[in-house]
Design brief:
The strands form six sheets. A five-stranded antiparallel β-sheet has the order 6-7-13-11-12. About 30% of the residues lie in helices and about 25% in strands. The protein is α+β, with helices and mostly antiparallel strands. It has three domains: about 100 residues, 2-Layer Sandwich (Uridine Diphospho-n-acetylenolpyruvylglucosamine Reductase, domain 2), CATH 3.30.43; about 110 residues, Uridine Diphospho-n-acetylenolpyruvylglucosamine Reductase, domain 3 (2-Layer Sandwich); about 80 residues, Uridine Diphospho-n-acetylenolpyruvylglucosamine Reductase, domain 1 (Alpha-Beta Complex), CATH 3.90.78. A hairpin with a 7-residue loop joins strand 16 and strand 17. Bound molecules: flavin-adenine dinucleotide. Flavin-adenine dinucleotide (FAD) binds next to strand 3, helix 5, strand 9 and strand 13.
Length: about 350
């Protein structure tokens, strides 16, 4: 990683005067800059194996950031170059379109953590269930509700992930964010956390680099037992044998789960293409073998339509839809790839 290099200068020199965005720059120049600045950069990488749904097209460019400096550097580089940027955690809450993602996809794989005086500092790419298991073994309580929520710490902060009435924002002290190209600490109040929502969801200029959480002392055995009990409950209620992103829609309220509305509309088992409303849990839209993102999108649209007709409720997606091909037919060309 060449942190001493000035990518802005490099790009400015490579472009004609006045050209500010990649659309104006030569594709080869951009590719060369990305390759030079991001060692290990890959091109045309299938995203399906990197996402829980197991569907979706390729990333035009993919870079796995193994530490926080590399994550921040890759994000700043994409901003400087003016190319489309997507930061991904573990892909457990995204539906990538069949045409894939243009520009640069950065995988947050910065995973270190440290604990000091009851405060956990953890990098955004850390895998949440593994982290919570480690904490439990050390008798550290606070995040055990998230012991079976797949994904990364960063992804969980973005979506304010939670279970059993608890959520990440309940134990969060601060987040180290990249705001545009400026790094700073943000408080939970600034990040506007709500049920499965945060400022990250509406502000693409915000990237979570790392976070600090408040922990309490707990009994390791009791914490382990709580996490194991939750895992058992999930196995009995969720169709974990199929690919999914967990609950597809947000619950309209705690008293009114989306699953009840979907089941009430008689939609369990509804199948569109190779996507199906689970018989086991109606808010899981599962991908059968051979499913495409278009199948899942079409099923979700049909579920929304029928729930609206049946009960008047407008379901809102919890799963993030990313990339081209989300509103088929979509013929939009790649931004960087030669035609
Ligand atoms: C079987 C199953 C069960 C689930 N159960 C639950 C549950 O009980 N509760 C719950 O809340 N969720 C649940 N989920 C959903 C999912 O696990 C969470 O939303 C998870 O926190 C997503 O993390 P991720 O790293 O996979 O995020 P990703 O899917 O990689 O990304 C999600 C969004 O966050 C953005 N993002 C990711 N990292 C960053 C970052 N560092 N900075 C800025 N933006 C970023 C991405 O661009 C994307 O828009 C479940 C999913 C599955 C598959």
């Amino acid at each position: 990683m060449r942190h001493d290099h000035d990518p802005v200068g490099a790009v400015t020199r490579a472009r004609p005067p006045g050209a500010l965005r990649c659309y104006d720059a030569r594709v080869d120049d951009l590719r060369d800059i990305l390759r030079r600045e991001l060692p290990g950069l890959e091109e045309a990488v299938p995203l399906a194996p990197l996402c829980a749904y197991g569907v979706g097209g390729p990333a035009e460019f993919l870079f796995a950031a193994r530490d926080t400096n590399a994550l921040a550097y890759a994000v700043r580089l994409a901003l400087d170059l003016g190319i489309p940027l997507t930061v991904l955690g573990r892909g457990t809450n995204v539906l990538v379109g069949d045409a894939g993602l243009p520009g640069l996809v950065v995988l947050a794989r910065n995973e270190r953590y440290e604990i000091d005086a009851g405060l956990l500092r953890v990098e955004a790419g850390a895998e949440l269930p593994g982290l919570v298991a480690d904490l439990a073994a050390q008798g550290l309580a606070g995040l055990e509700f998230a012991g079976n929520i797949p994904g990364s710490v960063g992804g969980a902060i973005v979506g304010n992930a939670g279970a059993y009435g608890r959520a990440m924002s309940d134990v969060l002290v601060e987040v180290q964010v990249l705001e545009g190209s400026r790094e700073r600490r943000a408080t939970p109040a600034e990040l506007a956390f709500e049920y499965r929502a945060s400022a990250f969801k509406t502000r693409p200029d915000l990237v979570a680099l790392s976070a600090m959480f408040r922990l309490d002392r707990g009994d390791p055995e009791a914490l382990r037992a709580e996490i194991a009990q939750d895992a058992g409950l999930r196995r009995s209620k969720h169709p974990l044998e199929y690919s999914s992103c967990g609950s597809y829609f947000k619950n309209p309220s705690r008293e009114l789960p989306a699953a009840r509305l979907i089941e009430g509309a008689g939609l369990k088992g509804l199948t569109v293409g190779r996507a199906r409303v689970s018989e086991k849990h109606a808010n899981f839209l599962v991908a059968l073998d051979g499913a495409t993102a278009a199948d899942i999108l079409a099923l979700a649209a049909e579920v929304k339509r029928r729930v609206r007709e049946h009960s008047g409720y407008e379901l809102e997606e919890e799963v993030r839809r990313l990339g081209r091909g989300q509103d088929p037919p979509d013929g939009s060309p790649a931004l960087l790839s030669p035609p």
